[in-house]
Specification:
This protein is an alpha/beta fold and 251 residues long. The chain is 32% helix and 25% strand. The chain folds into two domains: 138 residues, NAD(P)-binding Rossmann-like Domain (Rossmann fold, 3-Layer(aba) Sandwich); 106 residues, Dihydrodipicolinate Reductase, domain 2 (2-Layer Sandwich). Bound molecules: NADPH dihydro-nicotinamide-adenine-dinucleotide phosphate (NDP) and ligand LZUJQKHR.
């Protein structure tokens, strides 16, 4: 049985994971971490890792970049690897994750769904062909009105996957208003829409002369992310230090 600490357990994703694990015979939540510290799902909830005294195999984090350092510190000290699903990380946070993974296993992914992780490979293959034919690349993402970060972590993940194929020569253009409106040659445009209860939509648009190819992923429920996170937690439990990705879990 994989024993999980769920950080952000009282949030939207935390609740979906909690529900999915009720009937899971291979994994269970042994504790939650959440700012309000309210226990409502039959497992203890602590306000921070400094109060958490349970025996666990893995941490799943869907919360906020705040307190990231404490979580990594806990993981290193207790030898508990971390599935890091939280987005909106700064460059400093990402460097901290990279450094931290030298002492504890960390799997970071801005999107745990099978669909997006398949899309990453598809857009890389398309980029190789289409950029050589002078196509421009734009990414459009849409999310619910509660989302605190923009652009989405997934939009950045897609842009980074594309840029990897382009030897990291492209820059990201987040705002086309005013003087930034004209398009540069080696750039990936990234735009965000926020409204209602949109779970998550990502479009990668390759626009050439007289033809356009669009790749689109739509999440219809948060369960697609929760299932991927649970799969990743089962994979990561017992693994040693290192920086892991969803592609290590989903071949
Ligand atoms: N990788 C992926 O596939 C996905 C990633 N995400 C990301 O996961 C994160 C959470 O999303 P979501 O569940 O929708 O957000 P919510 O705001 O609904 O939930 C976040 C929860 O974490 C708590 N929290 C905030 N800060 C801390 C902290 N420092 N320590 C402990 N708990 C904290 C919040 O408490 P309070 O409400 O009191 O602030 C809240 O209960 C976001 O970054 C989102 O982008 C979301 C979906 C999929
Ligand atoms: O906050 C969300 O809801 C989501 N966040 C992730 C992101 O920033 O890419 C993944 C998903 O699209 C839902």
């Amino acid at each position: 049985m994989t024993k999980i600490i769920l950080r952000g357990c009282n949030g939207k994703m935390g609740q979906v994971i909690t529900e999915l694990l009720v009937n899971d015979e291979q994994a269970q939540i042994v504790a939650g971490i959440d700012l309000n510290g309210i226990a409502k799902n039959g497992y203890p909830v602590f306000k921070s890792f400094s109060h958490c005294n349970v025996d666990a195999d893995v941490i799943i984090d869907f919360s906020s970049p705040k307190g990231l350092e404490d979580m990594i510190f806990y993981g290193q000290n207790k030898n508990v690897p971390i599935v890091l699903c939280t987005t909106g990380l700064s460059e400093e946070d990402i460097a901290m994750v990279s450094e931290g993974s030298k002492k504890v296993g960390i799997l970071r992914s801005a999107n745990m769904s099978l669909g997006i992780n398949t899309l990453l490979k598809l857009v890389q293959a398309a980029t190789k062909v289409l950029v050589a034919a002078d196509f421009d690349i734009e990414i459009l993402e849409k999310h619910h009105n509660q989302k605190v970060d923009a652009p989405s972590g997934t939009a950045l993940l897609l842009a980074d996957a594309i840029n990897e194929v382009l030897n990291k020569e492209y820059t990201y253009q987040y705002d086309r208003s005013k003087e930034l409106a004209p398009r540069g040659k080696k750039e990936i445009g990234i735009s965000a829409v926020r409204g209602g209860t949109i779970v998550g939509e990502h479009e990668v648009i390759f626009a050439g002369t007289d033809e356009v190819i669009e790749f689109k992923h739509t999440a219809y429920s948060k369960a697609v992310f929760a299932k991927g996170a649970i799969q990743a937690a089962k994979f990561l439990a017992g693994k040693g230090p290192g920086l892991y990705q969803m592609s290590d879990v989903i071949e």
